[in-house]
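Give me structure tokens for this 134-residue protein.
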Amino acid sequence: MTAQRMLSTYRQTEVQSRTPLELVVMLYDGGLAFLHQARAAIERNDIPARREATTRALAIISQLQSTLNMEAGGDVAVQLDELYSWVTGRILKATMDNRAEPLDEAARVLATLRDSWVAIANGPADQQSVRGAA
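Here you go.
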């Protein structure tokens, strides 16, 4: 088995063994990592690396947004949807202007949201109304 295939198998096993809330946190972690990669690429003026990192970050934000349960999540889901749209706009702004500041703003929002989801994942089971937003 090749190293790449072993890594792929490990990642698949890791994802399958996670709870839905842990998967949401993993998505945030990935989005933040790609935003940091995009920022570093802007600093070294590496346009292809910036494009790759922002494309991946946008895909993660899109995934988070598309899985919102707007009916069950109520106001929380609506607010998350608006935040995801704002974050997407900041990433696009950073790409258009080749500037890191909008990425920093997007990363701050994602980090705050990530920390909130970690607290929910680690909290009591009676937080079902918030869990329904994901």
